[in-house]
Amino acid sequence: MNKGLKLAAAVLCAAVLGACGKGDGGAAAGDGAITVGFSQVGAESEWRTANTRSVKEALAAPEFNLKFSDAQQKQENQIKALRSFIAQGVDVIAFSPVVESGWETVLREAKAAGIPVVLTDRAVAVSDESLYATFIGSDFVEEGRKAARWLIEDSEGQAGPVRVVELQGTVGSAPANDRMKGFKEILGQDPRFTIVRSQSGDFTRAKGKEVMEAFLKAEGPGGIDVLFAHNDDMAIGAIQAIEAAGLKPGEDIRIVSIDGVRGAFEAMKAGKLNATIECNPLLGPQLADLVRDVHAGRPVPRRVEVEEGVFTREQAAAELPRRKY
Ligand code: GZL
């Protein structure tokens, strides 16, 4: 790349990322370190905060030079960041795609530039699987199945009908699509259950509260038996709405959600949340291993999944001190 292009790339980088050069706490660029461009979804939830902390801690090691970008949950910001990483000639790109579609073009640009891509947390829907080297994250469909299995088990002896409302994650995102798919696959096997309303709360507490208020208004008191929330943050927001409506969360309306963040364990300990399905955000160390292998040209698995459990309010008090996020 000639001097003029290098200068242009540096200016572009500064404009898009606001802080180039040394990156986020890693070693200085050009010292043999692996330069990694990481585009994060945003800072929308407790889960994301823990995930960002894990990635930054793992890639702060001297062997890495991390360039980190927060997309504020906007795909256009992620695409800009990926293009900036390509212009800077980073060694590896890693990112958590905010939604599943719309990545073919920029991933082809990365491939043309010879920059391998590691997907973390969320997946992309592309026709050409060679556009990324590997994926590390959770099985979101299984997380949805686990939530439904817990609900069926917790409803043993109940005749029904059991009216369920669903707070979905970000529209078009892999976790929202797959958690809904898994939940419906299992719940659909039991005729007692009906999902009476579904709407996106965008994985945030504020939107979760707002949508739950609308559900309560539409269904009226006693019209909702269960809330399934695609993440704990929306469930915590919904708990505020349920209490404001004079109802007891965890009792009048049972709640099952996903992530297993500290806030969920505190809500379960208070009896306001019934169960959370763990979705492990602490992917940093495994991501660092994959980046090393991909950079060195060593073979890597196409998909690396993390182990996750199911936690109920009966276990919350004992488990809370052990939680790492
Ligand atoms: C799941 C992750 C989701 C979490 C939400 O791996 O992508 O995004 O469930 C987060 O809390 O916002």
TrEMBL record:
Q: Is Ligase given among the entry's keywords?
A: no
Q: Which residues form the Periplasmic binding protein domain?
A: 36-281
Q: Give the residue range of the signal peptide.
A: 1-21
Extract the Gene3D superfamilies matched here: 3.40.50.2300
Q: Which residues form a coiled coil?
A: none
Q: What PROSITE patterns does the database record attribute to this sequence?
A: PROKAR_LIPOPROTEIN
Main site of residence? other
**Source domain of life:** Bacteria
Which SUPFAM superfamilies does the UniProt entry name for this protein? Periplasmic binding protein-like I
The places in or outside the cell where this protein is found are: Cell envelope
Q: Which Pfam families match?
A: Peripla_BP_4
UniProt keyword annotations, A-Z: Signal
InterPro entries from the xrefs?
Answer: Peripla_BP_I, SBP_2_dom
Look up keyword Signal and say if it applies: yes
The UniProt family comment states: Belongs to the bacterial solute-binding protein 2 family.
Protein known as: ABC transporter substrate-binding protein
Q: Which organism is it from?
A: Pseudoxanthomonas kaohsiungensis
Q: What lineage is this protein's organism placed in? A: Bacteria, Pseudomonadati, Pseudomonadota, Gammaproteobacteria, Lysobacterales
